[in-house]
Amino acid sequence: MPRRAPDGQGVTEHRITFGNYERAFVTEIKTDLEKGVKIAAVSAVAIPVVVGASAVAGLGLLGYGIYCGLNTFGLMDIENPIPSIDDLKNDDDSYMGFILRGFKSKKRWKGEQIYKQENGGGGGDF
Fold first, then answer.
1. Distances in Å between the alpha carbon of 113 and those of 107, 109, 117, 122, 123?
2. Which of 40, 75, 78, 102 is the most buried (most CB within 10 A)?
3. Long-range Cβ contacts of 64-67 (<8 Å, 24+ apart)
């Protein structure tokens, strides 16, 4: 819009008239811009949701890995969550007990004890 009304002397008004081809072209551009705005709006919401879900899943997987790792060493007993060193030494099924016993199997130790009792305290190598 001009600052002043067209008066026929100093201010001249020019008009552009669109035909069907130009109108279709402008409508197509407008539709593409609206699609872009919608995609940007969905991306603004979807990307943080995906990142958040990935973080939660990653932390869950990390926690499960830590649980399995501690369970491997016999440190995740439900009834006795914090075992003592003696509990771990006497645990036949944990690797930590095997390490704390000096890499000796408790089952072998019981076998040596039975052998000594049956043979009058004599020793023997297993």
1. 10, 6, 6, 10, 9
2. 75
3. none
Q: What is the residue whose two structure tokens read 């004890």? A: 113
Measured at the CA of 28, the angle between CA 25 and CA 34, to 5 degrees, comes to 145
Looking at the structure, tell me whether residues 109 and 62 fall in a common domain: no
Rounded CA separation 73/89 (Å): 11
Contacts of 85 (CB under 8 A, 6+ apart): 100
Range of the domain at 91: 82-121
pLDDT tens per residue across span 44-53: 889 999 999 9
The rounded distance, in Å, linking the Cα atoms of 108 and 122 is: 16
Q: Give the pTM.
A: 0.38
Q: Check whether residue 27 and residue 67 sit in a common domain.
A: yes
